Amino acid sequence: MYVFELPEIGEGVVEGEMVRWLVNVGDNVATDQPICEIMTDKATVEISSPKSGKVLSLSGKPGDVIKVHSPLMQLDLGGGGSLPVAAPVKAATPAPSAPVLVVAPVSVAAAAPTASAPSALHPAVAAKMPRPPGEKALASPAVRHDAKARGLDIDAVPGSGKDGRVTRADLEAFNAAPVAVEPKAPPALVAPSPVQGDERVKIIGLRRKISEKMVQAWRTAPHFTYVDEVDASKLMEMRKSLLPLAESRGVRLSYLPFVMKALCMVFREFPTLNAVMDEEAFELVVRRDVNIGIATDTPAGLFVPVIKRVQEKNVIEIAREIAEITERTRNGKGKIDDFSGGSFTITSVGNIGGRFATPILNHPEVAILGVNQIHDRPVALNGQVVVRPMMYLSPSFDHRVIDGAVAARFVSALKAALENPWSLVLELR
Questions:
Q1: Which residues, at least 6 apart from 182, have a Cβ–Cβ distance to it below 8 Å?
Q2: Active-site choice (122, 145, 375, 399)
Q3: pTM to 2 decimal places
């Protein structure tokens, strides 16, 4: 018998949350075969078996926090041992490939077709993978949200994705045509209509990590937000002039690389904004490199991949790296290094809408910048009312180490750099 313990999976990582098991008790596993997914504060990683053998027991279920060097799996290296009478924890049914909110309706009565009155299945639904009664659907949080908005019981929707996962196309097909069309029957044979009850949502996986991080940031650092607006006319002109060059190199050029280069320039005057707090020593650590995190919305939740050494790169290089790292993140292929080492964070919802926000710090960083939608509106200019493309900046700061006057001067300097973006030519390398 061999007891496999959770190995060290990253510098400073002392525990991880079980996302899902990839094997079951009784399975034969090979050396280096992935056996489970563990989520740390930085990323979700696959854990592989160091030896071949038969799985005797598995320790931990989805949502459990497991310490490094704690027992994870028990193997019979001979492959022929008997299973223990009671394994510490029964193997969990594999869940989706990314951590999701597990939604369990309290009570939903499913109307089933009777033997004497067979159902007529819609062709778009009949080809999908059936789900045994009582089994929960596999689906991303976005698809679950969509199902709820449509008033659908997602557990009743057949899934056509991998392992029976429910997709948006499945919801549309199910919504367009009922899964089962019951023929008319006497009132006594008609099943009662389903009644949707309350739902209990178990907070596990990435959602729990985000929750813990937000609570830690809010409790630890007293926040304040300072809002100012930028006339983006010249910034838009500069981006437009560089679009052909970016496209010739296969790069989609957004406004974020310009904002990041402007930050590099302003940090030279305000270095304490590019910094993190060492809470144990209660010291402000001013970073030499400008490592900017980009808050990224993914089907699995919020991640913050980090663009390293921004001060050494031009806007085209930054744009390419943003595209590459956010694509890895959204596809669940990000590495731990992608999410570590940040010194400052940008959160941008301009593509969605809104004017400004009050972001919560990405602790232990001491500042975060909200970049908002550029929108046309009337402004006073030289005694005349004119229409200009305006953009709000809404950064938040750790008031323990950043005073209001410092924050105001920092934002004013950033505003000046963005309103006169040709000064960034010196930063383009």
A1: 111, 113, 117, 119, 190
A2: 399
A3: 0.61
